[in-house]
Structure formats: C-alpha cells, structure tokens
C-alpha cells in the first residue's frame, strides 16, 4: 500500500488546522477527535503502541466513508516506516502536534484562555 496519500492528507490537515480552518470535534472515543467533510469523516486517536518491545503511544487515523464505515486506517508507525522497515519519528511528531491542535480546537482552549486572561490581566489597576 502506498502511503503517499495518507502522508499528504496529514500534511494538509496539519497546515489547515494551524490556520484554524479545520473544525475538530470531540468523538465518542477517549482522546479521539473527529472532523467531518461533505460526505466523509476522519478520526484521530491516541493509544498504546502496538510495536513489539516498544513502550509509548501511537497515533491512529481512521478514514470513514459516508456510511460511517472505516475505509482506511493507518498509524504514525505505518507512516514512519521507510523502505527498509526502519521506523523514525517524523510522522509521530506530526500526528502528535495535529492531535494536540485538534484537542485544543475541540475543547475551545483559546476561548477559555481569553476568558481567563480577561479576568486576571487587570493592567488598569497598576498604581503609577
């Protein structure tokens, strides 16, 4: 299976999420975020790695068709494998960043931070 399309998809999602153009929502799964498009959806989740002897987390992307069925699924581990079977961290790092941005968007982190800042940032009260 060629991983060119999944890699391109992650790059586009990361770029557009950074610009605030992707409307991530919390999904039913724990630590899972979802974005819906016209006919299809995508879920991004994190869980224990499945690599034998490895300790840590893995990010999983599930591509859902219009019926809600999983049409494709891949992990950072799949994306990080090179042609010799070695595993790097480039895609792990990208998916980790995307997952964090998706969580912040879905939970309204910027709005909450703005509200807190309005309450605590009282520059008007500085006696000069």
Short summary:
With 128 residues, the chain is of the alpha+beta class.
Q: How many separate helices?
A: 4
Number of domains: 1
Residue-averaged pLDDT? 88
Q: What is the approximate shape? A: globular
Percentage of residues in strands: 15-25%
Please write the string of helix (H) and strand (E) elements: HEEEEEHHH
Round the Cα radius of gyration to an integer and report it: 18 Å
The assigned structural class equals: alpha+beta
Euclidean distance between termini CA atoms: 67 Å
Profile the largest sheet.
5 strands, antiparallel
Strand order of the largest sheet: 1-2-3-4-5
Poorly predicted segments: none
**Helicity level:** 25-40%
User: What is the number of beta strands?
Assistant: 5
Question: What are the defining features of this structure?
Answer:
globular, 5 strands, 128 residues, single chain, alpha+beta
């Amino acid at each position: 299976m060629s991983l060119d399309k999944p890699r391109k998809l992650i790059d586009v999602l990361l770029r557009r999420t950074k610009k605030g153009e992707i409307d991530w929502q919390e999904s039913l799964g724990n630590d899972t975020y979802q974005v819906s498009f016209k006919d299809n959806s995508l879920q991004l989740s994190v869980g224990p790695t499945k690599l034998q002897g490895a300790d840590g987390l893995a990010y999983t992307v599930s591509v859902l068709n219009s019926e809600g069925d999983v049409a494709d699924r891949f992990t950072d581990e799949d994306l990080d494998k090179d042609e010799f079977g070695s595993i790097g961290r480039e895609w792990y790092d990208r998916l980790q960043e995307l997952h964090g941005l998706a969580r912040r968007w879905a939970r309204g982190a910027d709005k909450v931070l703005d509200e807190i800042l309005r309450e605590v940032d009282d520059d008007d009260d500085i006696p000069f």
